[in-house]
Design goal:
alpha/beta
Length: 323
């Protein structure tokens, strides 16, 4: 009996050692992967700091930087302004002004009394546009940020008509994120603080590996991991529940505004078929597929995302319909 237990212990120790070696080698490979962004461009650009206060008391932290045509950047679930920084720096160097803000409950922004719903996120974007008197802007969203833009279009069409002239939606969906009975389990797990030490541990980058495409860069995984654990657990759970329950399609029918939708072919979180469903709701919209891309395209292919936004800026006379 003792000998059998010792053999099992030795075998388990060998498996753990082998797993650690594989994890270390994988991490080293990710660290060697080419990063298209300079280290300094991962920092939010220097600019004017503003605070937008919503009608339910949330305070949204805003950065305005650069000069030229206006591009408003709305970030992903468990993200912050930093996730758009590589693209923002490129846009500024291309002669554009960027408006970046932390979604409610994320980064430096507070939640507000209405909590976190997709409708509320759209209302927050409307507040940013109106209080800063932004007009003739390109609205660009990534993941939940693109759902925020779609929520604005669905529920505040008059604000969209008055203040935007084009949309760029990256890694997007308008529905289809619910998984039935497993939804509540996912919400409880993602909203539990006990997962934070695990995600912060050396295996953290591996836990978020599915957020990127075929080629993983360690810096992208670490940034994604760090933003996840920086987001308060109740906010993570509430926003996840909101995305699982949403279906914006009925309120998007008839939307007519120049729109480019960018989808990673290897996106496991918002698969390409969801991007095509969004496109079917928006007259004349275009879907751009990134062959090896995953979900975090703003980090993976910032040059391509910047190019799509710059092209959208060049559209001078969009046709927008309220019908």
């Amino acid at each position: 009996m003792v000998a059998r237990l010792m053999r099992r212990a030795v075998a388990l120790g060998g498996l753990l050692t082998a797993a650690a070696v594989v994890a270390r080698r994988t991490d080293e490979r990710w660290a060697r992967a080419e990063d298209p962004t300079r280290p300094e461009d991962y920092v939010v650009p220097n600019g004017e700091a503003r605070v937008v206060t919503t009608d339910d008391g949330a305070e949204l932290a805003v950065t305005i930087a650069g000069e030229g045509s206006t591009v408003v950047l709305s970030h992903c679930w468990t993200g912050a302004r930093e996730v758009w920084a590589p693209v923002a720096h490129r846009l500024i160097r291309s002669g554009n002004m960027v408006v970046m803000y932390d979604q409610r409950g994320h980064g430096s922004s507070t939640v507000g009394s209405d909590g976190c719903t997709i409708a509320r996120l759209g209302a927050d974007l409307a507040a940013v546009l109106e209080q800063l008197d932004i007009r003739d802007a390109i609205l660009a969203g990534h993941s939940m940020g693109s759902m925020t833009v779609l929520s604005l279009a669905a529920h505040h069409r008059e604000v969209l008509v008055e203040r935007a002239r084009g949309l760029v939606l990256v890694s997007t969906a308008a529905n289809g994120l619910g998984f039935g009975p497993i939804d509540r389990v996912l919400q409880k797990v993602i909203g539990a603080s006990f997962i934070d030490p695990i995600v912060r541990s050396p295996i953290g980058p591996a836990l978020v590996r599915a957020t990127v495409g075929r080629r993983a860069c360690r810096r992208h995984l670490v940034l994604t991991r760090d933003m996840l654990v920086a987001c308060p657990p109740p906010v993570r759970a509430a926003c996840l529940a909101a995305m699982q329950a949403m279906d914006l399609r009925p309120d998007l029918r008839g939307l007519d505004i120049p729109t480019t939708i960018v989808s990673g072919r290897f996106d496991l979180l918002t698969p390409p078929w969801l991007a095509r469903q969004v496109s079917s709701c928006i007259t004349g919209s275009t879907v751009v597929s990134v062959p090896g891309g995953g979900h975090m395209l703003v980090l993976e292919v910032p040059d391509q995302i910047t190019g799509v936004i710059v092209a959208a800026v060049a559209v001078h006379e969009p046709v927008i319909s309220l019908t």
